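Q: Here's a chain of 237 amino acids. Please give me its 3D structure as tokens.
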Amino acid sequence: AAQSPGYEWPVHALSVPPGFINTIVLIASSVTVILAWASLKLREFAKFKLFMSITLLCALGFMGIKAWEYNKKLHHYGVFLKDGAIITGHDIEVSESAIRIVPDAVQHGKAHGGPAHEPSAEKESDPDAPAPLVDPASVAKAGEAREPLEIPRGAVRRWSNHGPAYNTFYSIYFTLTGLHALHVIGGAVVLAYLLFTGEKMYRREPEHLANRVEVAGLFWHFVDLVWIFLFPVLYLL
């Protein structure tokens, strides 16, 4: 993160639907963990097992969607050219002389890798404007045909996948969501322990098990609340 370039906060850099689905999944898990605790208070152990199992399935679903998002980011690349253009795409191949990438977009931004935007028609018609290092038309043609585009290494300032080193935004994204995912895993491990080993405790001291589930549930609500803040900050702003 310390080596990622400066970058103004981008707009809608992340796909909203996966984040929204994960929000619904975690809210549902907060409801089911409360129902699991209430079932213990009512001495209905079978319902406790049902609701706690649903909670764990929600946790598994959340992590599955997050893993899918991470995989997409880590297999999507950006090649930063020395003239400020950014060519994004997939299936990158790097050699000493050139970088080959199947492009999906060409963007134009500040030379330091700042916010990308398409150039205005006025700028394109300026006869004194320097020629781009890579012809945008060749990028569009390769993208439409899904064929690799060869970029000379001399035109490239750096390249990276959309991981923490891509820019400051992705450094923040992976740090916050990664820490949150670790808390989800930790909470799920505790809830799974109470589900699979709780029967003996329930037979001996049912109220003791209910108290443990209540404390674990409070932690689970905290994890959900953190995500409710992360979703709008990272996905919607």
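Q: Can you summarize the key feature?
A: Helices lie at 16-41, 45-74, 121-124, 136-145, 168-204, 206-236.
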